[in-house]
Amino acid sequence: MGFIGSNFIRYAMRTRPAWTIVNLDKLTYAGNPANLADLQSGDGGGRYRFVLGDIQDVALVTHILDDGIDVVVNFAAESHVDRSILDSTPFLQTNVLGTQALLDASRGRPLGRFVQVSTDEVYGPAPAGVDFAEEAPLRPTSPYAASKAAADLLCLSSHKTYGTPVVIGRSTNNYGPYQYPEKFIPLVITQALENESIPIYGDGRQIRDWLYVEDHCEVVCRLVEAGQPGEIYNIAAGTGVPNYDVADQILKLVGRPVSLLRFVTDRPAHDRRYALDDAKIRATMGHSPAWTLEMGLEATVRWYVDHPQWWRPIKSGEFRGFYETWYSRQ
Ligand SMILES: NC(=O)c1ccc[n+]([C@@H]2O[C@H](COP(=O)([O-])OP(=O)(O)OC[C@H]3O[C@@H](n4cnc5c(N)ncnc54)[C@H](O)[C@@H]3O)[C@@H](O)[C@H]2O)c1
């Protein structure tokens, strides 16, 4: 019940009426039942079921798979780079050992596909003018990105060794409704709505290619349906923008002054630019994003404006401790 997983479940329930979904989630700080409050176990004529548990629990995963599951999609992860710099242990546990546990439980089964949700961060920073294709070397710079790269390699080795029908999607930064407010775009929006200062790392010129979460969800659905086992697919929006400009656009949308922006010491090893060549997925899946950054930011800002009851409790809870520890280290 994290950000992308909950959006994916809602999207797939709506657009893929033949699918039945079992959602296994440990409900960490980032796993929020409120993200799927509109969907209860048993809904959709029994098309949706929730199981509380850890992907590292091979016995539990085996039990779930025995129930006639034919596709695994792995969204479960520790996902925040800053937290991985403070403590990498849970990242190795869930992202590396957890992925291997899912692969172990999947081994030898007649699965249609095992879709691993990966990230552009495994490639590390892209030099100006270079868009990384799927064959680019893996050069992760944060513990988070290194753990995701390790997971990708474990998935590919499982495909080669045991024939697990692994398909890897490496997407650029996502944004949209239900994103935990430690991440850049919801942090800017919610701090602005509260008239609080907004931390911007370094000079704010780091470039990210923002993908609206619904576009990512559609691609993951297509990978489930038609991804080629053993293949990696880059998933991009094609609109690289500096962080400062994104913050500036958001401030305009919420009607707050740029004086709220506060430049803070850069994140260690902060990747300057991410950029992917997504020609493969465009050619093989006929995919191109439906959302421009302007449309997506407008929809996202509107969602946070309309749902303070979702984000206010988060910001006064666990988030506060992390925020104060992380930004006071500057
Ligand atoms: N958010 C992005 O911009 C982005 C971009 C590219 C790829 N990804 C990848 O997409 C996936 C989802 O990212 P997100 O932003 O939705 O993350 P998130 O932090 O919002 O959600 C992670 C979810 O995983 C669950 N989880 C964590 N450890 C678990 C475990 N051991 N067992 C079961 N469940 C566990 C959490 O409870 C939570 O529901 C991750 O694999 C991430 O690496 C994210």
Report what the structure shows.
The protein is α/β, with parallel strands linked by helices and 330 residues long. It has a domain at 3-175 and 209-238 and 269-291: Rossmann fold (3-Layer(aba) Sandwich), CATH 3.40.50. It is built from 13 helices and 12 strands. The protein has helices at 3-15, 43-46, 58-65, 81-86, 89-106, 143-162, 184-193, 213-226, 243-254, 279-285, 293-306, 308-316, 318-328, and strands at residues 21-25, 48-52, 71-74, 113-119, 166-171, 174-175, 198-201, 207-209, 211-212, 231-235, 240-242, 261-264. The strands form 5 sheets. It has a 4-stranded parallel beta sheet, with helices on both faces. Strand 4 (113-119), helix 6 (143-162) and strand 5 form a beta-alpha-beta unit. Helix 1 crosses helix 8 (213-226). The longest helix has 20 residues, at 143-162. The chain starts with a helix and ends with a helix. The structure holds nicotinamide-adenine-dinucleotide. The site of nicotinamide-adenine-dinucleotide has 27 residues, from helix 1, helix 5 and strand 4.
Q: What tags apply to this protein structure?
A:
Rossmann fold, two-stranded parallel ribbon, 15% strand, 4-stranded parallel beta sheet, binds nicotinamide-adenine-dinucleotide, 330 residues, alpha/beta
